[in-house]
Amino acid sequence: MTGRGGPAGRGVAPADVAAGVTGSRAVAVRRIGDAVHEVDLADGDRVVVKANRVARAEAAGLEWLAEPEGPPAPGVRGCSDEWLVIDRVEPGRPSPGAAEEFGARLAALHATGAPAFGSPPPGGPAEATIGQAPMANVEADAWPGWFAEHRIARYARLAVDAGSLTAAEAAVVESVRVQAPPEPPARLHGDLWSGNAHWAADGRVWLIDPAAHGGHRESDLAMLALFGCPHLDRVLAAYHEAAPLADGWRERAPLHQLFPLLVHVVLFGRAYAARTVAAARSAPR
Prior knowledge:
Blueprint: H1 14-22, E1 26-33, E2 36-41, E3 46-51, H2 55-65, E4 76-79, E5 83-87, H3 96-111, E6 127-130, E7 133-136, H4 143-161, H5 167-174, E8 186-188, E9 197-199, E10 205-207, E11 213-215, H6 217-226, H7 232-242, H8 253-268, H9 273-282
Antiparallel strand pairs: 1-2, 2-3, 3-5, 4-5, 6-7, 8-11, 9-10
Helix pairs in contact: 3-7, 4-5, 4-8, 5-9, 6-8, 8-9
């Protein structure tokens, strides 16, 4: 494990991982998610320990997203191939002011750019994940062909292979015309559904659990809208004021949402199939 304390392997307790990284004894451990624990330390600090088979990808993503003008991201204390230790961010309540600041800061983050569409964060692996699904960071110079192949067709094939999408449904999805006004690659969170926009006690929105890569900035905004985000209208208005979006961006949202919807079909089955096909049918053609 990078950071103080040396390596951690399978079967090591979260308390031991936290102590090895921070140099402080763990006094309490609470499970807060699937393979995610909060650890209170003897020095009064608190960290989050995550078991993650692509921990280095998440660590690299958090560090890449931590731009001074962008939304804050938890600091990385240490990571191994199997564990990630990050700062704990005290939760708070959504507010209109935090939403507006988040929109402006997200625009600033996107504007910092990426080397290419599909590029991983510096030091991050090409084979990463989004949620528990595989995600290959394959680089390309043009967004439409890259998105069609690596964010739509690949996951449609995985869903068909899993029996979660029929061949006819996959054909509808893959028939979508992938198009958007040309823009340079943006620095994306990559999995920015509302649960990964963490409303914190400090009055800001923090970015957590990224699947960071270079992509089209409309993808992050479309994903924010997919499952509902508090004060979304304020987020989008502040973003658009800071970095105006090309005409038709709202109508293109279903196109960008195909990627996370297909990931849900791959991970959770046919419960998301109808919504995925509906998004494909409503995307601009």
